[in-house]
Design brief:
It is an enzyme of class 1 (oxidoreductase). By secondary structure, the protein is an alpha/beta fold. The chain contains five helices and eight strands, in the order E-H-E-E-E-H-E-H-E-E-H-E-H. The protein is about 35% helix and about 20% strand.
Length: about 180
């Protein structure tokens, strides 16, 4: 990792659900003693200003939002450890939904730049608003056991953030075996 630079928890959100997940992850990384910047991935955000990226986007049409994929394209030229999270309406429980979740992650990753090495990519459920979905979509969602409202699984998000923090902390440990100092 590039010493002295913060970790970016970057996000692209459509209605605020992904921002909430990103802020939660950033908070957990800070609690682990890491220097963190949490910000939307807009065109002015320079990927080189960070030692690692934890990037998330809302999923629309089985793809990340354009600002997130644009950031990934710019980031691919500057190798850094990278974790990804997607926020969608599918919540991973039960065999059918687990299969759908795996399929969604694969489809999303097809839109990532070639050669981007991810440490991990998780799909989290977001806030589901079915008022703008046609009757067939609502019926399908209900058939899967879905319901409108906030579907975010905060304990699962916290567990994943703790895993990311642990991996980042190990990467920041000097080769001599001594622990790198942490700010807290």
């Amino acid at each position: 990792m590039t010493a002295g630079l913060p970790v970016l928890v970057g996000y692209a959100t459509a209605a605020g659900s992904t921002q909430g997940v990103a802020e939660r992850i950033a908070g957990r990384l800070r609690e682990a003693g890491l220097s963190v910047t949490c910000a939307p991935v807009d065109p002015g955000l320079d990927p080189r200003a960070f030692c690692a990226w934890v990037l998330g986007s809302a999923v629309h049409g089985m793809a990340w939002l354009p600002s997130a994929t644009d950031f990934l394209s710019r980031a691919a030229a500057t190798p850094r450890p990278c974790w990804a999270f997607s926020v969608a309406g599918v919540s991973p429980s039960g065999p059918v939904r687990r299969w759908m979740t795996d399929q969604e992650v694969r489809r999303v990753q097809r839109g990532f730049p070639p050669g981007l090495a991810l440490e991990d990519h998780q799909l989290f459920a977001g806030v589901v608003d079915t008022t703008r979905v046609g009757w067939a979509g609502r019926a399908f969602w209900r058939a899967l056991g879905g319901r409108p409202g906030d579907q975010r699984d905060w304990p699962a998000i916290d567990r994943w953030a703790a895993q990311v923090a642990a991996q980042l902390s190990v990467a920041a440990t000097p080769a001599s075996g001594q622990r790198a100092p942490r700010s807290g």
